[in-house]
Structures are given as C-alpha cells and as structure tokens.
Amino acid sequence: MPEENILETRRLVKEFKGFVAVSDVSLTVRRGHIHALIGPNGAGKTTVFNLLTKFLQPTSGQILFKGRDITAERPAQIARRGIVRSFQISATFPHLTVLENVRVALQRGLGTSFHFWKSERTLDALNDRAMQLLATVHLEEHADTVTVELPYGRKRVLEIATTLAMDPELMLLDEPTQGMGHEDVERVTQLIKKVAANRTVLMVEHNMNVVASIADTITVLQRGQVIAEGPYSVVSKDPQVLEAYMGSAETELQGAHG
User: Fold this and answer.
1) pLDDT tens, 91-134?
2) Residue spans of alpha helices (H) in the chain
3) Phi/psi of residue 160, each to 5°?
4) Is 216 exposed, middle or buried (0-12, 13-18, 19+ CB in 10 A)?
5) Which of 31, 148, 226, 232 stands the most exposed, by the fewest C-beta atoms within 10 Å?
6) pTM across the whole model
C-alpha cells in the first residue's frame, strides 16, 4: 500500500492584529513517520501547533486529518479524532502519583472523567493498562512516587506516557527534550523512536542532534514561512536554513550528525 498522508495543512495563515505569525504554510505529514518542525525562535512553530490542535483558529487555510477537513472543529473534537498533544511545560498533576496520572489519562480516554459519583475502586481496572504504559516508558518502578518528587526529565517521560494513554494516532510533541541533561535527552529520544513504531509523531524540537537522529522529514520555518523541507541530510545543507540559524546554530546544524 502506498504511504498515506495522515495530516495536511493547505496555505495556513494566522494573523494577530496585522502581524502574520504563520504565512501560507502547507505541510504534509506521512503516516508512521517522525516529522520535525524546526526553526529559530519566533519562527511560528508553536503557533502552527496551536492551529493544529485548535487552541487558535486560522485566519485562512485548511487543516485535513486523514483526508477530512477539521479546520472548524474544537479542541475536544480534535482530541477525540486521535490528535493528542504534549506541551512545552510539563502538564502532569504534581500531587498525584505517577500511576494515578496515567490512570486519569486512561479514564479520559474511556469518557468517564466526570463520573464523580463512582467509587475510586472502579478505576482499579485501569491499573494493569497503566502499569503496561509505565513499563513502556521505563517508569514502572516509580509508580507510587508522587509526581512532584520526580526529576524533571522523568516528568517529561511521564507526560509522554499520559499522552500515550489517550491512544493517539498522531502525537504532537512540543519541545520534548527542552531543559534536559544529556542522559535524559538520550532517554527521551529513544522513547520517541520506540512509540513512533506504530503511530505518527509531529514534533517541535530545538535539539538538532535529536532531530538528526530520529526525524524522517524536517520542515524548517522562518518568520512563519516554510523555507525548506526534506530529510536532515538535505535540510542541513540548505543555504536558506544555514542563514536562518547563523553563527553557532549553523555549526550545530552541520555538526549534529558528525
């Protein structure tokens, strides 16, 4: 079977009082791929994510998921379709345990989040699945740890686990390795590669070593516009991309795979 495009944007535009944050962005994400969105600060990457998950409405243009126009849909509808996002800032519940965080995410997936009258014991049936997910991300030994006590890198890993609990077809990861030490970066990079084996990942990422090692396709944004797209080997040599990053970032782009 030919590869299928799971997500497509057509000439996406977002203006804020005359300022064009996203300009004519056409993006195609292939099913089963890891697709990275990169660019200098202020390039419009997070705005594109906010448009895709409908935290913002586009000024013009279209968003298609599995061939269906979802441009006018609300965030909850987008999530129910299987597009689930993690955020730049860790979005876990700090005073619940690691296991409880994953259980809450599983409960959301069941659509029973607001059944307040049910006994907490009814959630025990979710424990096995929650533990399986924690094993997937190597957090099972921290199941009973209160989340606020986890090191920063493990909190980001837990967030990926809660995203996985929603059983997404398309995972949107916003800066998954931001603020991490080398060891945590490597752990999260391998985790993304692992979970992408049977789903699609679109990620915003600053770390070029991460992008170089796992992204199938890279789209480069500058001032809200796509200036290059393709595999790392092509994008990293593009004169426009090197000019956009300049200086030390240029060296980083060229050296990420060396």
Assistant:
1) 688 999 999 999 888 876 565 444 544 555 666 778 889 999 99
2) 45-52, 75-80, 98-110, 127-136, 152-165, 182-195, 208-214, 232-235, 239-245, 247-255
3) -65, -40
4) middle
5) 148
6) 0.86
Strands of the sheet with 68-69, listed across from one edge: 19-30, 5-16, 60-65, 68-69
Q: Of 159, 162, 161, nearest to 180 (Cα)? A: 159
Query: Left if phi > 0, otherwise alpha if psi is -120 to 50, otherwise beta: which for 46?
Result: alpha
Residues 51 and 65: their CA atoms lie apart, in Å, by 13
Give the whole-angstrom CA distance, residue 43 versus residue 38: 8
Q: What is the pLDDT of residues 174-187, one digit of tens each?
A: 999 988 888 899 99
Other beta carbons within 10 Å of 95: 9
Query: Bridge partners of 228?
Result: 220
- Run of H or E including 34: strand 34-38
d(CA 185, CA 210): 8
SS3 content of the chain, % helix, strand, coil (to 5): 40, 25, 35
Count of Cβ atoms closer than 10 Å to residue 185 Cβ: 19
